[in-house]
Amino acid sequence: MARMNYYEVLGVSREASDEDIKKAYRKLVFEHHPDRNPHRKDADERIREINVAYEIVGDPERRRSYDRLSWGDEPRTAAIDPGVILGGMEQKLFDEGRKELFSILMQNVARVRAELGVIRERAIREQGYDSFLEPVVAARAFEIMSDFVTAEMNRRKQRLVEVATEMLVSQGLAKRGDEKGIRSLQSRLEESFHKGRIHGIASALELFYERR
Question: Which end of the chain is more exposed for a tag (fewer CB within 10 A), N or C?
Fold first, then answer.
């Protein structure tokens, strides 16, 4: 199942300006509106695709999210298995969350060292000796995450998840109008981002960990 390219839907390039995208959208709406094409059976579907595409790339923030999710690593022009599509998107969001928190922790080495002290104490209490005990690290990362995540970071996460959800719906991983299916899909994507944040904290801590 091919991934829908919203730029192609609007007939513009990825380098198109916001104004060019707006002009292309208006022209397409005028040409393909069902009222102007009463005999075309696909008119409703075509105008829906145009509106969805403009909703994403016509909004600067959503456009940046779409570009990041679509071409952050390399273009993917086709995919076969829906599970592969979903897994790839989950991995992208996991990586976004991981990089976000890893970067923040790497700028706060004093906090990293303090947290390693807490982790050592808990690991010794649980197993009798010092080690980088992953369940302990993950639990501590979950506890302290709110110390670093700002409201703006959560808004950015929400934008990424919304765009990712729309991209997956356009590829048939959930039917439009199936609110339960779409919520389930969005929940999985949010969980992937959350797990990425946990892993980002853990990765920063592991980088400075030295067994004593």
Answer: C
User: What residues does 78 pair with on adjacent strands?
Assistant: 2
Among 197, 207, 209, which Cα is nearest to 144's? Answer: 197
Asked if 132 and 119 count as a contact pair (C-beta separation under 8 A), the reply is: yes
Rounded Cα–Cα distance for residues 6 and 82 (Å): 19
Model confidence over 92-110: pLDDT tens digits?
999 999 999 999 999 999 9
* Rounded Cα distance, 163 and 168, in Å: 9
Q: How far apart are CA 51 and CA 6, in angstroms?
A: 10
pTM given for the model: 0.74
Q: What are phi and psi of 78, to 5 degrees?
A: -150, 155
Q: Please tell me the distance from the alpha carbon of residue 147 to that of residue 154, in angstroms, as a whole number.
A: 13
β-pair partners for 2: 78
Single-letter amino acid code for the residue at 46: R
Predicted confidence (pLDDT) per residue in 115-168, tens digit: 999 999 999 999 999 999 999 999 999 999 999 999 999 999 999 999 999 989
CA 208, 210, 212: angle at the middle one, nearest 5? Answer: 150
Q: How far apart are CA 96 and CA 194, in angstroms?
A: 10
Count CB-CB contacts under 10 A for residue 162: 15
